[in-house]
């Protein structure tokens, strides 16, 4: 398709490009550090592919913003990573992490693709989405190959189709609760897996953070992740279903030497929290049972409070880069 005019970037397109730059420059720091401490050849290949994608994405965003004469964000640089720091995570956690990073990319790039309109931006996000799909697939295949993939529960096939007969289908607090739906099981398992991984990451960060306030914040986040993981696991257990997720704390070493800046680690946890809130919202919308809806609302509120406290800390320390925003017309009119 050929355009007859050069359309300026919309607010949405700038916002997504800016966010993509932040996420990919952060990923570059993490993956480079992982590559400095990896033993398994197949895991190294997965990390190298992820690194290749992030390098390409950062370069493309730079090209677009430079052409538009838009300031290149600072994001994260070599100042935010210490490649000489001892290993903090095992190879197994790298696989879980990269797979989750791929799943995170599927959501963020898919959302961007649905909201942008300029041809070059559409092409960029369509390509990024395809590449990230491949990354998620490779991560999943490798976790299966290494025997660390935990399959979600299996449910029996019905003899025939049926229809919901009464409102007990929605019951969650009073009366006899119906068994979980397949979609509800899927959301619970996915959220449990995310918390199992998040628990390990934030535990590692709590061991190496330089600032005492940041360490305390990470310890609080670790406890929240542990509680959320237990809540989801209990739901599956009460329905006589396999867990589908595990606590990955065993994949964290005893290192206390920081491989990342406190700024990067705070941003990382903020991104995970924001993603978790979004996923809980999706889960709420697809779970008809009342008790699950209330549960996701409660967990989301807890994460929102945690995220707000983290944002305040980042602002106080001068770690929060200003996102793109509209002009303050009232101020300009004074």
TrEMBL record:
Pfam family, one: DUF3231
Database matches in InterPro entries: DUF3231, Ferritin-like
Name used for this protein in its record: Uncharacterized protein DUF3231
């Amino acid at each position: 398709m050929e355009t007859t005019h050069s359309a300026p970037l919309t607010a949405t397109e700038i916002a997504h490009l800016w966010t993509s730059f932040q996420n990919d420059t952060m990923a570059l720091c993490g993956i480079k550090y992982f590559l400095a401490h990896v033993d398994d050849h197949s895991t190294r290949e997965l990390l190298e592919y992820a690194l290749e994608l992030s390098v390409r994405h950062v370069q493309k965003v730079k090209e677009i913003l430079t052409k538009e004469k838009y300031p290149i964000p600072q994001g994260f640089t070599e100042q935010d990573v210490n490649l000489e720091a001892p290993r903090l995570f095992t190879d197994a956690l790298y696989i879980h992490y990269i797979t989750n990073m791929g799943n995170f990319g599927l959501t963020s790039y898919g959302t961007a693709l649905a909201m942008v309109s300029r041809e070059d931006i559409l092409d960029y996000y369509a390509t990024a989405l395809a590449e990230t799909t491949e990354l998620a697939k490779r991560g999943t295949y490798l976790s299966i190959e290494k025997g660390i993939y935990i399959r979600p529960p299996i449910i029996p096939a019905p003899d025939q189709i049926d229809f919901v007969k009464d409102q007990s289908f929605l019951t969650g607090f009073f009366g006899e609760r119906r068994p979980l739906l397949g979609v509800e099981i899927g959301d619970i398992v996915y959220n449990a897996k995310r918390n199992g991984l998040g628990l390990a990451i934030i535990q590692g960060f709590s061991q190496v953070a330089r600032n005492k306030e940041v360490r305390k914040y990470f310890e609080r986040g670790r406890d929240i992740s542990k509680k959320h993981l237990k809540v989801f696991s209990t739901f599956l257990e009460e329905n006589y279903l396999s867990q589908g997720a595990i606590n990955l704390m065993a994949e964290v070493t005893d290192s206390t030497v920081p491989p990342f800046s406190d700024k990067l680690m705070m941003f990382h946890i903020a991104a995970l929290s924001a993603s978790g809130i979004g996923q809980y919202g999706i889960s709420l919308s697809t779970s008809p049972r009342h008790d699950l809806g209330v549960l996701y609302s409660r967990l989301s509120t807890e994460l929102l409070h945690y995220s707000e406290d983290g944002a305040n800390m980042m602002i106080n320390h001068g770690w929060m880069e200003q996102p793109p925003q509209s002009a303050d017309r009232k101020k300009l009119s004074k």
